[in-house]
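USER: Note each token:
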Amino acid sequence: MVRGLKSRLKMLLRVFVRNRFLLSVGLSVATGLAVRSVFQIPDSDPLLRYAAFERPAIYQAFIVSYALFGFTTPYCFAFDVSLSSLHPFL
């Protein structure tokens, strides 16, 4: 019984490792949406309001990069690295 469970678990891990790109992208999108809903950009911050008034292009670049990093950072550091580290053990 234990031997069958080990082989099933190993087969499941192989499927995860083979499809790690899609799994990492899906998990990072879910994490990015969660992070974006919890950590919103503070619109009442005087420095950000000043930047939006003086340099709107720089302010927009900051807003876009803030949103983009919420999706790409979990992909790079958390999911892709952790799923790739399983590869040597299979």
In short: The mean pLDDT is 82.
